[in-house]
Design a protein that fits this description.
The complex is a heterodimer.
Chain A (H helix, E strand, L loop, with lengths): L2 E6 H11 L4 E4 L7 H9 L1 H4 L3 E4 L3 H13 L4 E5 L1 H16 L4 E7 L15 H6 L9 E3 L4 H18 L2 E7 H5 L1 E6 L8 H8 L15 E2 L6 H21 L3 E4 L6 E4 L2 H16 L4 E6 L1 E3 L3 H7 L5 E5 L7 H8 L5 E4 L9 H13 L3
Parallel strand pairs in A: 2-3, 2-4, 4-5, 5-7, 6-7, 11-12, 11-14, 14-15
Antiparallel strand pairs in A: 1-8, 6-13, 10-12
Helix pairs in contact in A: 1-2, 1-7, 4-5, 11-14, 12-13
Chain B lengths: L3 H4 L26 H15 L5 E5 L14 E4 L5 H11 L4 E7 H7 L1 H10 L4 E6 L2 E2 L5 E2 L18 H4 L5 H6 L4 E8 L3 H19 L4 E7 L3 H4 L3 H15 L3 E4 L1
Helix pairs in contact in B: 2-8, 4-5
Classes of the chains: A alpha/beta, B alpha/beta.
Chain lengths: ~350, ~250
């Protein structure tokens, strides 16, 4: 029997983690995502599944606990919001460099600096283009509903282990705080030692047994030629991910003259904007990237054949719009509309922006 | 005349290389204490027969490459963060013997928060803390533990307390934390000191096996290259200058 509940996005992250057999959560409180650890502490999963939940002394420490746990082949995760995610970048780049699977949830708030506790989408560059130092990518999932907050926890772990790569759920304060109906996942047991051996036995630090050489988890390579070879290996991995894991959704794009491009909570606003615009007789569609890395570049390229212009709508000063422009490559106009500092655009604002910036501008 | 091959017999064997010590040549400078401490850890792992159960966490610093020398599973941490990796590893695999191996820059400067909180939580881990009062790997800069007046490349006129603050006795701080079970300060400059240090390491690993909480072993060490002294002179300098400020002995447990 499917189990439905009315829950906050943040609470669902915690519930989904327990249900998908997560081994460990390590976090530090920050608004607007503190409900994730609060829910876990209230649920006491260590009594139910044996899952470890620990409040670390800092975000820096929390991500490094994730680094240690991931080294052991365990399903481990952390969550935070923008300023905390900045602190985690050191650990994230080490995890990417050591090719470890893990899940990082960012419930984005406005910045820069301490900024605001209100929702924003201004961490796109940080999430998608690298964030920490060195050439690496995260796999980035952008949920647009409380249901997807649930679904992307398991999806995130699956992708993380499939590619031995950190995965980020790039959410925002709207999705984290709003309540919606959600169908919860079935319970899955945590992996046994035998299962971990089967899945990650070639690299995980589970103790050197006589049947294998000892394992070293490291991102250090002092030989430049070998480091370059490793960098190329990563590039190949990101290519494979780009070929196989692009996820997106389209609404009313088949006959669209104009396409809104929006992810996460902005895409929910844009769905309404599409309806309003069509009532006015403007043929508008919506493209919602679900994976931000890999980005649905090819879909946009194909759309340029029949679309007269794109409007990227995001709660930022214009970050994802750069990826739209790269895909469109100058063939048709691409504009950006965004609200900042925790302000959320209304559907009417989006329609006005479309008319002013794209249709009249043309 | 007796041939060497006639002497190499089982009954004449008084010492052999620990099994978990690999055949790789140490990258450490002559006179450095790291090699001796590595060997002691290897001997303890052999004697307790816990190779399959031991996970090491190496730091950033000279001993970043510790994983080349002990054939156990290793994690290489970011600078100062080894206690966080060890925390998660010990909690997720409670039957394992988890230890972090850290220098003074790693543990007492950039990783101060991580070590204090791991010890305060009483994580069931061994911490080996190599204190040579200097940043060895980056070429001899001032460390949190550099003595007053001690010249380094970033305190070329000697550590000035007014400018750089006081050397940090972090082990004394850690001994105050209720989570720590065994806290001691050792050295490896003489055969007697080596034997004592090994006893402490053995006790620490045994205590972790009995889930007694955090085991903290500081080893006051030499850095001939950083101190710009010969190995013998470095040992003498350590006895004369380091030991009065960092006195050896058990602080707790």
């Amino acid at each position: 029997m499917a189990e439905y509940r009315l829950m906050k996005g943040n609470e669902v992250i915690a519930e989904a983690a327990i249900r998908c057999g997560c081994d460990g959560y390590f976090g530090y409180p920050i608004t607007p995502q503190s409900e994730i650890m609060e829910t876990l502490m209230l649920r006491k999963p260590w009594e139910e599944t044996g899952m470890v939940v620990l409040q670390a002394e800092s975000e820096v420490s929390a991500i490094n606990m994730v680094y240690g746990g991931a080294s052991c082949g365990k399903k481990v995760m952390t969550s935070s919001s923008s300023p905390g995610i900045s602190l985690k970048q050191e650990g994230i780049t080490y995890i990417a460099g050591a090719e470890l699977p893990c899940l990082v949830v960012n419930v984005v708030r406005g910045g820069p600096g301490l900024g605001t506790i209100q929702p924003s989408q201004s961490d796109y560059f940080q999430a998608v283009k690298g964030g920490g130092h060195g050439d690496y990518h995260l796999i980035v999932l952008a949920p647009a509903s409380v249901q997807e907050m649930n679904d992307f926890v398991e999806l995130g772990f699956n992708l993380a282990f499939k590619y031995r790569n950190p995965v980020m759920i790039l959410s925002d304060g709207v999705i984290g705080q709003m309540m919606e109906k959600v169908q919860l996942s079935e319970y899955k047991p945590r992996w046994t030692d035998e299962e971990i051996k089967k899945i990650s036995g070639t690299w995980a630090t589970t103790g050197k047994t006589p049947d294998r050489d000892y394992h070293v988890i490291t991102s250090l390579e002092l030989d430049s030629a070998r480091q370059e070879k490793f960098n190329h290996k990563l590039i190949e991995k990101y290519k494979t991910i780009t070929e196989n894991e692009v996820r997106f959704e389209t609404f009313d794009c088949d006959d669209a003259d104009y396409v809104l491009v929006a992810y996460g909570s902005s895409s929910r606003i844009c769905q309404k904007a599409v309806t309003l615009a069509r009532e006015k007789g403007i043929k508008v569609g919506l493209l919602r990237p679900i994976t931000l890395f890999p980005y649905p570049t090819k879909v946009i390229q194909d759309m340029t054949k029949h679309v007269k212009g794109f409007l990227a709508v995001e709660m930022s000063a214009g970050q994802m719009v750069e990826d739209v422009r790269l895909a469109v490559n100058g063939k048709v106009p691409v504009e950006h509309y965004g609200r900042l500092g925790g302000m959320i655009p209304t559907p009417n604002e989006v329609v006005n922006a479309l008319e002013e910036q794209i249709i009249k501008g043309k | 005349m007796t041939e060497v091959k006639d002497i190499i017999k089982k009954e004449n064997l008084v010492y052999s290389k620990p099994k978990v010590l690999t055949d790789k040549v140490f990258h450490y400078c002559p006179g450095c204490s790291h090699g001796v401490v590595h060997k002691l850890i290897a001997e303890v792992i052999d004697e307790l027969n816990i190779q399959e159960k031991t996970i090491g966490v190496s730091p950033v610093g000279c001993s970043v490459l510790a994983y080349n020398y002990l054939s156990i599973d290793w994690q290489q941490a970011a600078h100062g963060r080894a206690p966080s990796l060890a925390t998660a590893t010990a909690r997720l695999m409670p039957d394992k013997y988890v230890f972090s191996y850290q220098g003074d820059g790693d543990l007492a400067s950039i990783g101060t928060a991580e070590i204090i909180h791991a010890c305060n939580r009483g994580e069931n881990i061994v911490v080996i803390f190599i204190n040579n009062g200097i940043y060895g790997m980056t070429g001899g800069q001032m460390a949190p533990t550099t003595l007053e007046g001690m010249p380094t490349s970033t305190s070329p006129y000697g550590r000035d307390i007014k400018l750089a603050g006081h050397p940090l006795k972090i082990t004394e701080l850690i001994a105050q934390l209720p989570g720590t079970d065994f806290v001691t300060r050792q050295a490896v400059h003489t055969p007697a000191a080596v034997r004592k240090c090994k006893k402490a390491i053995l006790k620490a690993f045994q205590n972790v096996g009995q889930k007694k909480g955090t085991q903290f072993i500081e080893v006051v060490s030499t850095c001939s290259s950083g101190w710009k002294l010969s190995p013998v002179k470095a040992n003498e300098w350590m006895v004369e200058h380091m030991f009065p400020f960092y006195p050896l002995g058990d602080m707790k447990g």
